[in-house]
Amino acid sequence: MNTFHFTRPARNVPIDRALVGYVGSGDLEVMIDNSDQPQAEIYIHSSAEQGEQRWLSIIERLEVAHPLPAMRMDIHDFSATPGVIRLRLEQALEQALAKELSYE
């Protein structure tokens, strides 16, 4: 199992905790929690060999469409495809940012 850690620029917006996917599902689990830090801390546990550059590329592409909130994100990857990774990351961010996206 490989562990990667990325610190990314983030915006300070209120977020909720989020959990998507299921670690035993055979693909990917993403958990988001609040952070006292002014950046996004992303921790990835992956069964993929030499996946650090692949993960960095996925996160950088995600940031273009979705500026990251200040948070701690934990990801448990069991060889998910890039499409599943992107879907789970977007689902988790949508849950975490539900208050900000509300039109009430």
Automatic annotation (TrEMBL):
Keywords: Cytoplasm, Phosphoprotein
One GO MF term: acyl carrier activity
InterPro entries tied to this protein: Mal_deCO2ase/Cit_lyase_ACP, Malonate_deCO2ase_dsu
Transmembrane segments: none
Location(s), subcellular: Cytoplasm
Post-translational note: Covalently binds the prosthetic group of malonate decarboxylase.
The keyword Electron transport appears for this protein: no
O-(phosphoribosyl dephospho-coenzyme A)serine: residues carrying this PTM: 25
GO cellular-component term (any): cytoplasm
Superkingdom assignment: Bacteria
Signal peptide: none
Family to which this protein belongs: Belongs to the MdcC family.
NCBIfam families associated with the record: malonate_delta (TIGR03130)
Biological role: Subunit of malonate decarboxylase, it is an acyl carrier protein to which acetyl and malonyl thioester residues are bound via a 2'-(5''-phosphoribosyl)-3'-dephospho-CoA prosthetic group and turn over during the catalytic mechanism.
Annotated protein name in UniProt: Malonate decarboxylase acyl carrier protein
Organism of derivation: Marinomonas spartinae
